[in-house]
Design brief:
Layout lengths: L3 H10 L2 H6 L5 E3 L2 E4 L11 E4 L4 E4 L5 E2 L1 H9 L3 H12 L10 H32 L3 H9 L4 H6 L3 E3 L16 H5 L3 E5 L5 E5 L4 E7 L5 E8 L7 E3 L19 H7 L1 E5 L2 H9 L5 E3 L7 H10 L2 E6 L3 H14 L8 E6 L6 H8 L1 H9 L4 H10 L7 H15 L6 H14 L26 H5 L32 H6 L10 H11 L9 H5 L3 H11 L6 H12 L20 H8 L4 H8 L3 H31 L7 H21 L2
Parallel strand pairs: 12-13, 12-14, 14-15
Antiparallel strand pairs: 1-2, 2-3, 3-4, 4-5, 6-9, 7-8, 9-10, 10-11
Length: 660
């Protein structure tokens, strides 16, 4: 069994636009990418890939999934094979575990714990929000900082009251371990050895930290008294890791997409203050330097990342670290800027004193990555001497070695070589850069390449790092899983994709308990034969797959159940429910692999998408029919126009839900 934690990490590292773009010609369409669906024949693009949400969806055939699902459906791989393929691309090794009963139990326990902890953090966040309205001290602080109630609501700000155990009024069982595991309560012992518990956050302004999906996973807190530390974060928990999460990502997602850039600042109040002045495209690190995981998240949301630092020595050191962590991601399509604010200013104070436009102008005038790389490389060096130029060239070579081989790297190297009076070879760069004509994101850095690099390693310390040993898109040939040769050898396997109703039935016969919760509106979209199958399953005692299969074998008699027939199951109106059950129970590689790997979340997603897709098609057909009738000379009564608008609103809502 592959650990769920590894799969989550893998999906964070893989860029689905780059993956899908290596098999499908994609074009930018707003914030997403579109192309002709690889799973069914079409002339107009209905296939969409979301870079920020990391999934694909086809409005034509209903195909939907993550990078793992794409490889399973497009190449015909099993679930383990798809994970192994992506792991190779990312330069990771798949942990090998046996799918024992204890492993399955542990995985289920982990999922259950995550659900419980998220419930705890959500309840705590709601409690803090309620208490903010009752705290004149906290409200006065926000007013003095220029924060309105609207912004406080957008960022779910709250207040943790004074006292040792305020959360005891929220949770009936204050002694439960989940409160400690969620980072809300601290458990310790007094001098006599007696155990004691108290709230972690007391008399503090609370900043809930949300995941990219909007789940409350932790908290940041600022003291309103003299308590130390001034700022306090949730500890590392099964939900929260400061090296993987950022403050404001969920709240700022729309503004980031609209701006086309994301600003990275250091404080919660910086994010809130910028949003108050109409600059909602900012996020904050959580008491740590920017990490690889942070950047992977950010460049999926925007093509430009702007780092903001104080102008003091500490800010310069932080910027130097950010530069090195950014270089492997720097391409002509993904750019970085490094902004230094005037002394004694942070983004909050700057925007309150000078206004939003002044800050926008300051950002626009900030040097790009290329200039900052040069500044860092020649710092404290006397370029008038051979010794100074030699020392600077060593540093330039080291930093350039962290970059992927793109036109940007070549341009920076040429500029530095001219200033240092040396050739490109001495900087470890080839005089030509050949790029792959692949997807729109083909120039983005190889996650696997980056995962195997260290900012302390020079390019000449890596094996086989000669120009001849690099692939045409700049990726090292020794990283497996990449290259045109592999892509040519692995021709797409176009397996028949089940219709939405077929997929729903395939899941239902494998998990018969779902029959009882099938919505009447969805049931109405099925064929009479499929509706009869649902009613047959509902009428069977026990509803386990094994018992239903035995009942189907006994009831099917001599009816043919060996295949779908020439017209597919939807056309076989005279097929008995038992025979139809047998057909839908036949092996289906993608679905069976998901269930064998206990991927219940993905199975649930398949079920939800199929049901929503069926409803969407039904609504679209009704809307089209109504629109045609109104356009055929019939009197457009207010009632019929209102009905059409209602249908269109429901269609838009369903489409939005399918893309979430």
């Amino acid at each position: 069994m592959i650990p769920q934690a590894f799969i989550d990490t893998l999906l964070q590292r893989v860029d689905i636009v780059e993956l899908v773009g290596s098999y499908v010609q994609l074009k930018k369409a707003g914030i997403n990418y579109s192309g002709l669906c690889p799973f069914h024949t079409e002339k107009s693009p209905s296939f969409t890939v979301s870079a920020s949400k990391q999934f694909y969806h086809c409005f034509g055939c209903g195909a939907h999934g993550t990078a793992v699902g794409f490889l399973m459906e497009h190449l015909g791989l099993s679930f383990p094979q798809a994970v192994e393929d992506l792991a190779r691309r990312a330069g990771l090794e798949v942990p090998q575990e046996q799918a024992s009963e204890s492993d399955k139990a542990a995985s289920a326990a982990q999922r259950d714990q995550r659900v419980r902890l998220m419930d705890c953090t959500l309840q705590a966040a709601k409690f803090y929000q309620r208490r903010l309205k009752e705290s004149p001290q906290a409200i006065d602080y926000l007013k003095r900082r220029g924060v309105t109630g609207e912004i406080a609501k957008r960022y779910h700000l709250g207040y943790s009251p004074e006292g040792w155990q305020p959360l005891q009024s929220v949770f009936a069982d204050y002694e439960q371990a989940d409160l400690v595991d969620a980072g809300l309560v601290i458990a310790s012992h007094d001098e006599s050895g007696k155990s004691k518990r108290y709230d972690r956050f007391r008399n503090r302004l609370m900043f809930p930290i949300l995941s990219a999906r909007g789940e409350v996973i932790g908290f940041g807190a600022r003291t309103l008294g003299s308590d130390e530390p001034k700022y306090l974060n949730s500890p590392e928990t099964p939900l929260f890791s400061k090296g993987q999460n950022l403050y404001g990502v969920f709240e700022g997602r729309t503004s980031i997409r609209e701006a086309g850039q994301v600003w990275v600042v250091e404080g919660y109040m910086d994010v809130v203050a910028l949003a108050q002045h109409g600059l909602g495209h900012a996020v904050a690190t959580l008491g740590t330097a920017t990490t690889e995981q942070h950047l992977r998240m950010l460049i999926r949301m925007a093509d430009q990342v702007v780092f903001m630092f104080d102008g003091d020595a500490a800010g310069q050191r932080a910027a130097a670290k950010a530069l090195e962590i950014s270089l492997p991601f720097a391409t002509p399509k993904t750019t970085f800027k490094f902004v230094f604010l005037p002394n004694q200013h942070d983004p909050d104070s700057f925007v309150r004193e000078s206004g939003a436009q002044a800050l926008l102008d300051h950002v626009a005038a900030a040097p790009p990555l290329s200039s900052f790389l040069w500044t860092q490389s020649v710092a404290d060096q006397d370029l008038a001497t051979p010794e100074g130029r030699a020392a600077a060239s060593v540093e330039v070579r080291r930093l350039l070695g962290l970059m992927p081989a793109t036109e940007l790297k070549l341009q920076i190297a040429q500029s530095c070589a001219k200033r240092l009076e040396c050739d490109l070879a001495s900087l470890g760069v080839s005089a030509s850069v050949t790029r792959s004509p692949g997807s729109a994101h083909s120039e983005r850095p190889n996650r696997g390449d980056f995962a195997n690099r260290s900012s302390a390693h020079r390019s000449d310390h890596r094996p086989n790092n000669r120009p001849a040993d690099r692939l045409t898109d700049g990726r090292p040939a020794w990283v497996p899983g990449y290259g045109q040769r592999e892509r040519m050898e692995r021709r797409p396997v176009r397996r028949p994709i089940p219709s939405l109703s077929d997929r729903l039935m395939q899941i239902l016969v494998r998990q018969p308990q779902r029959a009882g919760s099938l919505q009447p509106e969805v049931l109405a979209t099925l064929t009479p034969a499929q509706q009869a199958l649902v009613q047959w399953v509902r009428g069977q005692p026990g509803r386990s797959f094994a018992s239903l299969h035995e009942a189907a074998l006994a009831a099917a008699g001599t009816q043919d159940s060996s295949g779908w027939g020439a017209d597919g199951p939807d056309q076989q109106l005279d097929v008995s429910p038992a025979a139809l059950f047998q057909r839908y129970a036949q092996p289906e590689i993608t679905l069976d692999d998901l269930m064998a790997q206990d991927q219940s979340d993905l199975v649930q997603t398949e079920w939800d998408r199929a049901a929503s897709g069926l409803l969407l098609r039904d609504l679209q057909a009704r809307a089209t029919s109504l629109a045609k009738s109104l356009g055929a000379g019939q009197v457009a009564s207010p009632e019929r126009l209102s009905e059409l608008r209602d249908l269109q609103a429901k269609i838009a809502e369903l489409k939005q839900s399918l893309m979430q």
